[in-house]
Structures are given as C-alpha cells and as structure tokens.
Amino acid sequence: MATSMNCTRWLVFTLYILFLTLFLSVISLANAADDIVFQSGNQQKLNVGVAKARRFLLYDVNPGEGFNLRRDVYMRMANLVGALGETEDWTLVLPPWGRIYHWQNRHLDQVRIPWSTFFDVPSLNRHIPVIELEEYIKIRGKPEIDQILYLQSYKEGWSNGKFEEKVDERDCIDRPMYQKDSDGLYRGWFWGYEEVYAKAFKCVSIQGFTTTIAPVLINNVTATSVFLDRGEELLHDSYGQVDYWNARRSMRFAKHLTDIGDDFRRGFLNSDDKRDKTEVTEDWRDMRRDPGSATGGPYIAVHLRRQDYARGGRKDVPTLQAAAEHVEGLLKKLKLKIVFLATDAPKREIDEFKKYLSNFKVVNYVPPKVVLEKYMDGGVAIIDQWICAHARYFIGTGVSTFTFRINEERQILGFDPKMTYNRFCGHAEEPDCEQPSAWKIVY
C-alpha cells in the first residue's frame, strides 16, 4: 500500500515538474518574441507579437495656402501614414476645410466642412486609414489632442547653402498660434472647433521629406495623437512615383459633385462618359488607362486664372484678348465650336472674353443658389475641374495648382498628354513659351 502511494506521489511530482518546465518555456518564448518585435533595427521577422495601440496623425496647413495645394499636402500626409503603418497602427485624421483665401463668397459659413462634402472618403480609405475629425473626437471621447508639433524651417537656413535632411526641437521662430490657458491646455485655431485643445506643444525645425519625421514619431514621441501643423514643410518622398500616384488616384471627388458636373456636360456640352470614353471603375485600384484612350467631349476647356495673378502683373498671365485669340486658333484647328470657361474672373471680364469669341459658344458653370449654399466654393471649384477634365482639349494657367490638378485628373482618365499639358503664354513671354511637363502615371 505504501509502495503504491509512493508511486502515485512520484507520478504527480513528475507531471508537475514537466508542466512547470513547459510553462516557463512558453513564457521565455513570449518574452523573446516581445524583445524581437520591439528591438530597434532587428531584421528578424515574426508573424506574432504584442498588438500596439492605435495612433492618430492630425495635420494642418498654412492658412494662406489654397484648396489645391492643400490637396497636395494631403498626399504627403497620407503617404507618411502609409510609411508609419509599416511599424505601427496609424490613422490619418482629415482636417476640416475652411477659411481659404480664394473662397470669395464671404456670406457663407465656410468652416468645419468635412471631407465627405468634397471627396469620396471610402476611396481615400482604400489607400490608407482615414477618419473625419468628428469621428476622431468620438473615438477619443473628448476633443483632445495629445501633442502639437509645430513645423518650421531652420532660422539659419541651409548650412553652407547645402540641403540636408535634419530635424530638431527648437525655439519657435514666430509667435505660435497656440497659447496655454489657466488649466495648462493649449488653445488656438483648430479648424473652427473651439472645444478642441492640446495637452502639449513643441516647435520643431525640419528640413526634409515626410520620412524625415517618421522616425521621430515612432521613436521619440509617445503620444497617442500627434498634430503636425504647417504640414507643407514636409516634402514628397517619392514625387511622381507609385506612392504619389496611389494617393492621387485615391482622391476621387464626391459623387454628388461629379453628378452635377456630368449633368452639365450632357445638357450644355454634348458630352457623356460612354461617347467620350471616360468611364471610371468603382475602385480606383482597378483603373489603368492608356494615354490617348479617352477622347473627351466636343469642347475645349479653359482655366483662366485672373484675380491675384492679373493684379500682380505676372509676366506669365495673358491679356483677355490674347487668351481669346489663342483659344480661337485652337477651336479652328480642332474643328470645335464650344468652349467651357473655368475662371475666377469677375463677370465683366467673363463677358469681355465671350465677346472676343462671339462666333463660338462660350459657357461657364454658374451654380444655382442651392448648390452654392450646400457645397460652397470648394464644391463649385470641383465641379469646374471635373468638367475641364472631360474636354477634348484643355489649356490652363501656368504655375496654377488648379490647372495642375486638372492635368492629373485627365492623365488618370486616359487623355493624350498633348491634349492636356498646355498653358497660355503670358503677355511678357514669347508666343512659343515653355509648356508644362507631362507626368506619366506609375502604377
């Protein structure tokens, strides 16, 4: 009996030792996995690891920058989040639109405008994770940003006139827009949301690309949400390459705006996607068009920038008469009779331009009151761009991001670059002035 009990005790003890050994081995492997996951620069790859908390990147742009430059900064931020996403779980928070210089209808309350008013947000999400600001506030449970990094150039400029990538925490060069309140929280302009505040603020001098700031955000900043103000300080890492074009192709306009543009094309320009060979796929990732595959509607589209360009006496701005004469030559050459005009010119200048082309049909989009109030100046600008993007031939204004965005849209739709990358020669330029460079889409 004693022998039997001793055997039982020995078996239990043996099993206990085996279990303890196995348990400690598992713990050791788990710790080793964590060490590998978080060890900087380690080249080993594991399929398992500790899940990391979701982080948020917010950004803004210099208040003086226009609508289409802001679209370019979005692409930089989107690809920054794409790079960060290779290491951690990051989501880009889309900054609400508002207070843009070129939006001239001051009677409209053009602030706190969500991206969904102008763009197809699900399309953006097919490139990188994005959310609207109000969704971010709901997720956080409070209108709070953990850390502001106010980007600025270096006060001393380039060292020895040489560009090099670098980033440093520095004293603010200009007086910051954000000030501490009595609770130690930073208040300022947060896209018109007075309730939003930040817990910490730093000025950061940077000279470089979006990937220049990426290691800082991963290795030196522990905040869950980081706000990069003056996002235009960061340059494109891969301008004109695959990441650039993926971000650009994902920036599809909101359907309610393209529908308005399509209705206008059918009603006034004898244009529709089937005849013009400009049909698009549901998902931008499935769309690849050969240059010249699109024919476009039977009209010439013109973007004629006036306002600040004309007032500034820029040498690359044509007179109205010279622009009209150039368009008349194109109409005769292409055997077309209709011109679509997109311009910020006052009505008297539009009438003058039409007078010079009295033998042809010149139309421009004038939004009904309900469209203007619902979609505002930004929506009307997009409708103009969409109509221009579908013309048989397009000519724009040099050094204008409005023109450049139309060039890109036409490339995506499959137009011949020769029918797309054209600009007016200015009053102080030669008649055969240099034309814009055509950028081939890289898939």
Topology:
Layout lengths: L1 H37 L16 E5 L7 H18 L5 E5 L26 H5 L4 E3 H8 L3 E9 L13 E4 L9 E2 L5 E2 L9 E11 L2 H11 L4 E5 L12 H9 L4 H14 L4 H4 L20 E8 L2 H5 L8 H15 L3 E6 L3 H10 L4 E3 L5 H21 L1 E5 L5 H13 L30
Parallel strand pairs: 1-2, 1-9, 2-3, 4-8, 4-9, 10-11, 10-13, 11-12
Antiparallel strand pairs: 5-8, 6-7
Helix pairs in contact: 2-5, 2-6, 7-12, 10-11, 12-13
Describe the structure.
It is a single chain. The chain has 443 residues and is α/β, with parallel strands linked by helices. 38% of the residues lie in helices and 15% in strands. It has helices at 2-38, 67-84, 121-125, 133-140, 210-220, 242-250, 255-268, 273-276, 307-311, 320-334, 347-356, 369-389, 401-413, and strands spanning 55-59, 90-94, 130-132, 144-152, 166-169, 179-180, 186-187, 197-207, 225-229, 297-304, 338-343, 361-363, 391-395. Strands 3-2-1-9-4-8-5 form a seven-stranded mixed sheet, sandwiched between helices. Strand 1, helix 2 (67-84) and strand 2 (90-94) form a beta-alpha-beta unit. Mean pLDDT is 89; it is low at 1-50.
* Main sheet makeup: 7 strands, mixed
String of helices and strands: HEHEHEHEEEEEHEHHHEHHEHEHEH
General shape: globular
| CA(first)-CA(last) distance | 80 Å
Sheet-strand content, in percent, reads 15-25%
Q: Report Rg.
A: 28 Å
Widest beta sheet: strand line-up: 3-2-1-9-4-8-5
> How many DSSP-defined strands?
13
Poorly predicted segments: 1-50
The whole-number mean of residue pLDDT values reads 89
